[in-house]
Amino acid sequence: MFKALVLEQEDKKTLAGIRQLETSDLPEGDVLIDVDYSSLNYKDGLAITGKGRIVRQFPMVPGIDLTGTVAESSDDRYKAGDKVVLTGWGVGEGHWGGMAEKARLNADWLVPLPQKFDGKQAMMIGTAGLTAMLCVQAIVDADVKPEDGEILVTGASGGVGSVAVTLLSQLGYKVAAVTGRAEVNGELLKKLGATTIIERSVFEEPARPLDKQLWAGAIDTVGSKVLAKVLSQINYNGAVAICGLAGGFDLPTTVMPFILRNVRLQGVDSVMCPFEKRQQAWQRLSELLPASYFEQACREVALEEVAECAEAITNGQITGRVVIKL
Ligand SMILES: NC(=O)c1ccc[n+]([C@@H]2O[C@H](COP(=O)([O-])OP(=O)(O)OC[C@H]3O[C@@H](n4cnc5c(N)ncnc54)[C@H](OP(=O)(O)O)[C@@H]3O)[C@@H](O)[C@H]2O)c1
């Protein structure tokens, strides 16, 4: 028997409760994992509170991220005792996820945990950190170099944004951080490596098709009018990596930055990211993230506290990371 957070639905309401399950209850998969840690993402908050349509079938064990130790494997790539990390692939949405003491998963979804990280550190990085790394890699792959100019990061104090600021700075880029909470987070963003802090309101004014060229590249987690403004200010031949919609999923822009300034727009998805790219990204994270990253606020909670934290994260009341110890 093992303990799990289980989501059920009654009269279209999502109910979250702790249940004792048996290994035979777990869904099919090649690898049985003793879960060490999961983490609480905004998406998990939406799933657990039922505020967002994240869960595709009930009952569901939430948790889009997990780290753990292989207990049994019928796949040659993994053996008992191996440490692994999982993010995405619809786990915690359509396949039972990380908020349980055991999980059974498809071997194709797993990545060996880089030696430098322990389970808790990997969950402090989680989906948000992996996505940030993929965005940074997109800027590097677009051949935008530190000497070309500053890189703008929007939603800078969020999970993705704060790791993106850290990684860019570690790679020698000058980083301008756009945030709606400059007063609260400005100092922290500077500590992570931002050289310039810009109030989000500056980027919420309507964008002209083309504005003054100010940035060699950008990582955008916000979308909508903020992204439109960003695009209008990108230098000739610059590149923008986008992964999020914190400000909205529309994009009120024009073709002008693309056809007159050769600006390139690269979408970034971490959920279905193929194994090789995923493994390389985890490797790069282990090389680039400084020890100071792990000094940020991180609350370690038990399964019993998750429902309350899920409500808080959907109300914007959580600062820093929340990891769940199994
Ligand atoms: N494509 C993928 O694979 C993938 C993976 C992970 C996440 N995402 C998406 O990426 C985005 C960021 O994720 P996250 O984990 O970093 O989320 P997060 O921790 O909630 O951070 C989002 C940040 O965006 C800013 N923001 C919030 N509301 C805003 C608004 N109404 N208008 C403008 N800015 C706003 C805030 O930063 P400031 O206070 O600093 O302004 C906030 O901290 C989300 O939309 C998420 O769904 C995508």
Automatic annotation (TrEMBL):
Q: Which SMART domains match?
A: PKS_ER (SM00829)
* Pfam families associated with the record: ADH_N, ADH_zinc_N
Where are its TM segments located?
none
Outline the extent of the Enoyl reductase (ER) domain: 13-324
MF-aspect GO terms: acryloyl-CoA reductase (NADPH) activity
| NCBIfam families linked | oxido_YhdH
Name this polypeptide is given: Oxidoreductase
